[in-house]
């Protein structure tokens, strides 16, 4: 199973850019594809075209601070320097272009496929794109990515280890000991899976640190039934630094080890129940392997490795995308 992490609540204690095919022959700072439009938007860089507006197939003067164009239609797009570019969807909601950049990069139209995939590090580019999204909006990526793109995100995150500087980056402030963060909450989404795993889709996760300098976490269900199960059999895990997925030998950053659930945790966050023995299959050597994707965002795979020596490890469910959610 692959899991991805995005933005969550925090509590405190007391790259080279890929080159794309360019039909207009002008420099591009951002390329986004909005599904309900017939053609993708092209946002031209502020520094090159300040005060210009694309109208039809030509440029004309304007007082706007940004420029965009829609192929084959006469449209203009205006915003102030401090605004975040967005589009109003038919349902009235805003679609921010920085979020759409991430989606488009993971699932580019054929005409926007990078010319030379070996000329840049995809993970570095994606990390920067996620970093550009304000912290309070990063969790929205969970709803923007189709299940198949979660698997793609795991693959892209794997290229991060080819960049020594980027490989040292940590997506969690708690795990990087920033700002005395003691507790982080994440929303996560599983791309698919059998019962009893599918009920966890679009649920929550908490990561917390203890005085003995250990980090633990807990999966938290979102439905009424899951909330009741959480209070009876909370799903705790230990967070450990790990470099490799046992079953595939793929590189990773972390492992969430569920064990039997009987952790001796002395400093539980307020309101968290005491650990008890995990129900099946979580008591059968379940491990979630995690790759950092960007600040506050990660992707993972869950494996049931089994207590029996002859047991063959198997993926517990589909890929998981995690996003930190700020309080």
Question: Can you characterise this structure?
Answer:
The chain has 327 residues and is an alpha+beta fold. The protein has 2 domains: 3-11 and 165-324, no CATH class; 20-113, no CATH class. It contains 7 helices and 19 strands. The chain has helices at 46-49, 97-106, 122-132, 141-144, 147-158, 164-167, 224-232; strands at 3-4, 6-7, 10-12, 30-32, 41-44, 52-55, 58-61, 67-70, 86-88, 94-96, 181-190, 203-209, 215-220, 235-241, 254-257, 286-294, 297-304, 314-315, 320-324. The strands form 4 sheets. The chain has an 8-stranded antiparallel barrel. A 3-stranded antiparallel beta sheet has the order 4-5-8. The protein has a two-stranded antiparallel sheet with strand order 6-7. α2 (97-106) runs antiparallel to α3 (122-132). The longest helix has 12 residues, at 147-158. The radius of gyration is 22 Å and the shape is globular. It starts with a strand and ends with a strand. Residues 14-82 have low confidence and may be disordered.
